[in-house]
Amino acid sequence: MNSFWAVFKRELKSYFATPLAYVFLVIFLVASGLLTFNREKFFELRQADMHTFFVNLPWLMIFMVPATAMRLWAEERKVGTVELLCTLPITIPQAVLGKFFAAWTFLGIALALTFPMVLTVAYLGDPDGGLIATGYVASFLMAGSFLAIGCFFSAVSKNQVIAFVLAGVACALLVFAGLPSMLNYFSTFLPAGLVSAIGTMSLQEHFASLQRGVVRFNDVAYFVLLIAGWVAACTVVLDERKAC
Amino acid sequence: MIEVKELRRSFGPVVAVDGISFGVEKGQVLGLLGPNGAGKTTAMRMITCYIRPDSGTATVCGHDIRKDPIGVRRSLGYLAENSPAYGEMTVGGFLNFICDVRRIKGADRKKALDRVVPMCSIDSVYHQTIETLSKGYKRRVGLAQALIHDPQVLILDEPTDGLDPNQKHDVRQLITSMGKDKCIIISTHILEEVEAICSRTIIVAKGKVLVDSTPKQLKEQHKVGLEEIFRKVTKMKKIA
Prior knowledge:
The complex is a heterodimer of chains A (244) and B (240).
Chain A: H1 3-17, H2 20-39, H3 42-45, H4 51-54, H5 57-69, H6 71-79, H7 81-85, H8 92-112, H9 115-124, H10 129-156, H11 160-176, H12 180-187, H13 192-201, H14 203-211, H15 217-241
Helix pairs in contact in A: 1-8, 2-5, 5-10, 5-11, 6-10, 8-10, 8-15, 10-11, 10-14, 10-15, 14-15
Chain B: E1 2-11, E2 14-24, E3 29-33, H1 40-47, E4 55-60, E5 63-64, H2 69-75, E6 76-79, H3 91-101, H4 106-119, H5 135-147, E7 153-157, H6 165-179, E8 183-188, H7 191-197, E9 200-205, E10 208-213, H8 215-222, H9 226-239
Parallel strand pairs in B: 3-8, 3-9, 6-7, 7-8
Antiparallel strand pairs in B: 1-2, 1-4, 4-5, 9-10
């Protein structure tokens, strides 16, 4: 077996060997349901689509994804297992990617477990399947982006709480910067070009555009670049700091 | 099989390892001896490619630590200080993970596990999670991990630290029995251990090699116990 797969398998198993996975899954599923049905008043809208579900996911993920990501490297460095991992015949990119994809798969499982929402919508009406599919793709890509950011901060700090807070703030900035109210505020003192640049750099716009059922190259490229960039940065930082 | 040339590494203003050189052949058990903070662990970490040296290099079984770190790691077994391991895994799960990484499959894996588990006497805790183990068992799991691919070169950082006298005896016997056809470096600050198992000893302090000899020779030269020699050699450096 390739070293990448060995790391991947171990990491994914370790989520389910501790209560972490179950606590995370339960809270994620309850919170996403509550937000959809209580806050967005899913039933009163009388629309057979999942917009009310997806629209709240960024807020939920700002907290939940850094919570899964914070342990990735911070824990390894604190406990010292990073020394074991980095003296086995594994390259650092293999280790980083193995862990990243394991965590991403775990988040994928969490998203997949929201399937009762799809069943509900399908039972109540005749939803657009394509729209739901792109919504899930967008959510999965967003989870990956937040995870890549969390992975980076987890490599920066040995302290899991610091890693969590920094990653949460970075994710929140990405989302907040693109909100209409924020852009309005920016436009009071920034030139229009710069405001629209902030808008396109923010995650919100790309997430919303994918959610509308349009798969545009630049939206997908945005997420892919975001993930690749942060994961690459994580590799560099880890190589520098693993022994400190 | 191990050739160390002028390895040097500093952390900020502190020079941890200051240009050490030595070679170890097959069949030798080298004891790396020195006071705390002498640079033993840093030297071992550089040889195992965990940290990069500032200058100098080393080869392990012909693989250069700068050019081919993966080849080096493949050919050696390393027990790090405090034998880190994933606490939530069972001993069996952990050893299987190491086999996955080291690409030991199928019948070979079964053979490797059948060899290493009784050798380190961890049969009784095989299905236990590692975080529930005592320090001695944890250390033995770490040792099993380092031995599972039957490496030619073994690097053990304080392998008997924190073990009870019986366990110490067992580990020493294990090292002596393997010493004949492997090349082993152990670090320690327990002097009787050096006398018991090492065929050669290097005393380091402040990152420099002060003595490179055999325990027997040292005693003959100085006509005193190792402890006194150790004190004399390492203290001399401090005054100078």
